[in-house]
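FIELD: query
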Amino acid sequence: MQAPTPSSLLIALAGLLLVGCCIGSASFLHNANAERTKLERGLSLTISGRNLLVSRAEQPPRIITVPPVPAVHLEINLASSGWPAAMRKMTTVCNPSLFLRKTLVPGSLRTTVMTAVAPLNAREDRYGPDNLTGSEFQSALNEQYLKVLGLHKETGKSQAIQYTAKARRLDTLTLNKEGEIKLELGIPTDLAPIAPKIPEQEFALANILAEPDDMRLTEADVFPITVAGSSKHEHQGRGCLHEVCQKLRTGKPLRIVFYGDSITCGGSVENPELSFCNLFTRELKKRYPSSEITAINIGLGGTSTNTRLPRFREEVLSERPDLLVVEFVNNFALSKEEIKRDFDTMLTQAKAHGIDVILCTPHLFAPNYFPKSYGMKTWEMVAKHPYVEQIRSLAKQYHTGLADVAARWENLQSDGLAPELLLTDKLLHINERGHEIYAEELLKCVKTELDASFPLLLSRLVPLSW
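FIELD: result
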């Protein structure tokens, strides 16, 4: 018998490897626990454990493993952070028990006494809950957390809470022009995870939610991306921003007042430049550099139209804006009659002073944020809250612009997202992607008035044309 040559041995080994890969893929596909999801571009995704098998007819499948999510190490300075940052980093506003159960890595929590720092510079105003000033409310919430967490605040000393948190990560499955499948990894966070930015040469197929304790993925962790940025409602109010658009076209100065609550403040984003007000203003400046655009943000956390309206002349009209952008997600708590009265007064005064207006429908609160008496058990029920439709009707009645954020929230699945993935505190405050959606909807209003070439480039998920 002739001895095998080195080349024949290599050929045989390659054949065995090929057969092994085919058998592995076949067993993967026929795994009783595998789950299949259809994607764009004729692709399908099968899940088994932490493995993704992406396949297309007449092409070999690609197996991608989703790596584990590392924990994150955090520190909160109780003297300088105040309650909003502290509560968001502890997962859910006023819910330390949920923080203990869902976020904290056991045994990692500790406090340290810090060197002297500047005292908390809290805004003192009459809008604090239960007639507490801003600093009193912050102190009360911090003390509540410390008590539940079994920690003691030392009087006269600056303390910090240090802990390790379980993190989540939102990854994106992509396809490039050469047909290669890749998994772009997001950044681990204990807050609402944000999908990674995708290179221009890649097409986003699906977002994959990687949870900290998951040994296996399920179909619920896969969010296919279809037509990003779409919504069911198209009314933006053509012809309602005439003065604003005239100033932009002719290079005249433009003053914008942003009027709202903590969402307008941008209080839920780490970087203020990523709030929707700044994103919108920056895009306008980029498009119309010859027009001097001034933005005045008078957002105030914890307020609604009924607490702000008495000072409307002082806060808004005195600024002499050309454009007024109104966002009050907190109006969910008001009655239909209160909302109608407040907006009738506000819009009548704005129109009388020649101010163009864009009304924002609210993004959607988590259903469990509402009192049980509201009967809000599902996201669909929140989307049908009367306040949402009232804003759409008021925009038509007063011929204002409409940034229909609620409609985008109803159709987040097309962006490969879900409402709960955009809420940093799992209740009402939004992450950077949530702010981008507000800015995108505001830009749609301006685009409707101006020209079809106006760039809507904020969304990182807009499909490529190739």
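FIELD: remark
Residues 72-165 form one domain.
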